[in-house]
Write a structure and sequence with these properties.
By secondary structure, the chain is an alpha/beta fold. The protein folds into two domains: about 1-185, Leucine Dehydrogenase, chain A, domain 1 (Rossmann fold, 3-Layer(aba) Sandwich); about 205-365, NAD(P)-binding Rossmann-like Domain (Rossmann fold). It has 18 helices and twelve strands. The protein has a seven-stranded mixed β-sheet with strand order 9-8-7-6-10-11-12. It has a five-stranded mixed β-sheet with strand order 1-2-4-3-5, sandwiched between helices. The radius of gyration is 21 Å and the shape is globular. It starts with a helix and ends with a helix. Bound molecules: 1,4-dihydronicotinamide adenine dinucleotide and 2-oxoglutaric acid. 1,4-dihydronicotinamide adenine dinucleotide binds near residues 166, 323, 324, 348 and 378.
Length: about 450
C-alpha cells in the first residue's frame, strides 16, 4: 500500500540511524494494509502518523561515583510512547547496547503488546547504557539512585510505571523505589517488579517465562498437539529463559540448550533446569560450571559459534525459543533451523528475529509466536501488581497464576482470530499487529486529536 510505504520512508527520514526502530515499525506497518483498506477512518485521522511518533522522549545524564571515587557518566532514557489505553508502562534496560533506537523500538512494541493484554496500559520503555556486569552492589545502588533522581519527576503510579528488563531485576527495582520514595515521600505502585516485601506481586519474577510457556501451549493446542516430549532450543539464561525452562519442564518438554553472553550449554538428553537456576540465581556462576556436575553435557564458547550466527540455533530441535535479546536469530540461524526440521518458533525476547530470518520462517511455513503476544505475561502481571498496590491487597500466587493463564489464552485467541479474519490463522505476527493496532487506534479515535 503506497500510503504505508510513504509512512515508513517518513519514519526513516525523520529518525535517521535508528535501525532497530525502523525494523520494528516496518514489521508492523507491512501487516496493516488489510485493516487500513477496510476502513479509511484510520487514514483520515492520521492514526499511523501519530502511532509512530512517541508522545514524549526523555534523555538525561546519569552521573555516579564508582568504588574508587571516580565520577562516571551514563545516558538515561525514558520513551513515553503512548498513553491512549492507560498510564505509560514498560521496563527499564541497563545494558551497554542501549541507545535511542533500541529504547524506541522497545517502546513501540510495548504499545501494541500492552494493547493485546486487554488491560488498561499505555506503552513505554527506558533504560541506560550502563553495564551492570562487574559492578559492586554499592555501585549498582548509586547508579540506580542517580537514575531515579532525574526519572522521578516524569513518572507516577497513574502516569508512567516502569519495571525491569535486561540488567534490571528485583534488586535494581528495590534501589530505584527507595530513591523515588525518599524524593517524593510516597509509598505507592510507581514501579512494578518490586520485591514482594515492598509491595511486589507474587509470580512477577516468573510471569514472563511462564506466560511464554502458556502461549506456546495454546499454539500447540490449536494443532491438537502438546509440549510433552518436545525438544526445545532455548537461548538466554536470564529471568525470562530460566522460568520458561522451569515451566516447559513441568509440561514434560525436554530442554536441550540455553546460553549466556559467554557461550551455549547443550545436552542431548535434556538439561537439569534446577541446577541451571541454582547456578545463575544463587551463585551468579557461568554456564560452563554446569559441566562440573554433568560432564556429559557440551559447552560451546562464543569464539566457536558459526560466523554470523548463534550456536543454539544450529542444533536439532522441535521448537526454538529465543530469550536473550533483539536480532539474535539471523538469516543463517533461521536457515539452519529450517534445514534441521524445526517447525515452531516462539519468541521470548523482544524482536529476537531479524527481518531476513522472519522472511525465511514465512517462506517455510514455520509456525511463529511473535514476541509482542508471547511474552506479554510479564507486563500483564505488572498490571496485576498495580491493581494490588492501588487496592492495598496482596493476591496469592495461585490467584495470580490463574489470571496469567487466562490472559495468555485470551491473547492467543485474540491474535489467532484476527489472523483468521485477515489471512490465515497461523500468521500470528499479522494477527498480533492488527489486533494490537485496532485496540490502540480505537482508543485514539475516542480521544480526538491528542
Ligand atoms: N523481564 C521481563 O519481564 C521481560 C523481558 N523481555 C525480554 O526478554 C529478553 C531477556 O530479558 P531478561 O531475561 O529479563 O533479561 P536478563 O538480564 O535477566 O537476562 C538476559 C539474558 O540474555 C543474555 N543477553 C542479553 N543481551 C545479550 C547480548 N547482546 N548477547 C548475548 N546474550 C545476551 C544474557 O546473558 C542473559 O542470559 C529481553 O529481550 C527482554 O526485553 C520481554 C518481556 C518481559
Ligand atoms: O512489566 C513491565 O512493565 C514491562 C515488561 C517489559 O519490559 C516487556 O514486556 O518487554
Amino acid at each position: 500500500m503506497q500510503y504505508l510505504e510513504n509512512m515508513l520512508q517518513t519514519v526513516k527520514d525523520s529518525n535517521p540511524h535508528e535501525q532497530e526502530f525502523h525494523q520494528a515499525v516496518e514489521e508492523v506497518l507491512t501487516s496493516l494494509t488489510p485493516i487500513l483498506k477496510e476502513n479509511d477512518v484510520y487514514q483520515h485521522n492520521a492514526i499511523v502518523e501519530r502511532l509512530v511518533e512517541p508522545e514524549r522522549q526523555i534523555m538525561f545524564r546519569v552521573p555516579w561515583l564508582d568504588d574508587k571515587g571516580n565520577v562516571q557518566v551514563n545516558r538515561g532514557f525514558r520513551i513515553e510512547f503512548s498513553s491512549s489505553l492507560g498510564p505509560y508502562k514498560g521496563g527499564l534496560r541497563f545494558h551497554p547496547s542501549v541507545n535511542l533506537s533500541v529504547v524506541k523500538f522497545l517502546g513501540f512494541e510495548q504499545v501494541l503488546k500492552n494493547a493485546l493484554t486487554g488491560l488498561p496500559l499505555g506503552g513505554a520503555k527506558g533504560g541506560a547504557d550502563f553495564d551492570p556486569k562487574g559492578k559492586s552492589d554499592h555501585e549498582i545502588m548509586r547508579f540506580c539512585h542517580s537514575f531515579m533522581t532525574e526519572l522521578y519527576r516524569h513518572i507516577g503510579a497513574q502516569t508512567d510505571v516502569p519495571a525491569g528488563d535486561i540488567g534490571v531485576g528485583e534488586r535494581e527495582i528495590g534501589y530505584l523505589f527507595g530513591q523515588y520514595k525518599r524524593i517524593t515521600n510516597q509509598y505507592n505502585g510507581v514501579l512494578t517488579g518490586k520485591p514482594t516485601l515492598l509491595g511486589g506481586s507474587s509470580l512477577r519474577v516468573e510471569a514472563t517465562g511462564y506466560g511464554i510457556a502458556y502461549f506456546l501451549s495454546a499454539m500447540l493446542d490449536a494443532k491438537n498437539d502438546s509440549l510433552k516430549g518436545k525438544r526445545c532450543l532455548v537461548s538466554g539464561a536470564g529471568n525470562v529463559a530460566l522460568y520458561l525452562m522451569e515451566k516447559l519442564s513441568q509440561f514434560d518438554a525436554i530442554i536441550l540448550t540455553c546460553s549466556d553472553s559467554k557461550g551455549t550449554l547443550y545436552c542431548e538428553d535434556g538439561l537439569d533446569v534446577e541446577l541451571i537456576k541454582h547456578l545463575k540465581k544463587e551463585q551468579g556462576a557461568a554456564l560452563r560450571d554446569y559441566l562440573n556436575e554433568h560432564p556429559q553435557a557440551e559447552y560451546i564458547p562464543v569464539s566457536q559459534y558459526p560466523k554470523d550466527g548463534h550456536q543454539v540455533w544450529h542444533f536439532n530441535g522441535d521448537i526454538a525459543l529465543p530469550c536473550a535479546t533483539q536480532n539474535e536469530i539471523t538469516k543463517k540461524d533461521a536457515q539452519a533451523l529450517v534445514d534441521n526440521g524445526c517447525k515452531i518458533v516462539c519468541e521470548g525476547a523482544n524482536m529476537p528475529t531479524t527481518a531476513e530470518a522472519h522472511a525465511i520462517f514465512q517462506k517455510h511455513d514455520v509456525y511463529l509466536g511473535p514476541s509482542k503476544a508471547a511474552n506479554a505475561g510479564g507486563v500483564a502481571t505488572s498490571q496485576f501488581e498495580m491493581a494490588q498496590n492501588a487496592s492495598l491487597q496482596t493476591w496469592r500466587p495461585q490467584q495470580v497464576d490463574e489470571k496469567l493463564q487466562q490472559v495468555m489464552k485470551n491473547i492467543f485467541d485474540r491474535v489467532s482470530a484476527t489472523a483468521k479474519r485477515y489471512s490465515s490463522e497461523d500468521d500470528l505476527s499479522l494477527g498480533a499487529n492488527i489486533a494490537g493496532f485496532e485496540r490502540v487506534a480505537q482508543a485514539m479515535l475516542k480521544q480526538g486529536v491528542v
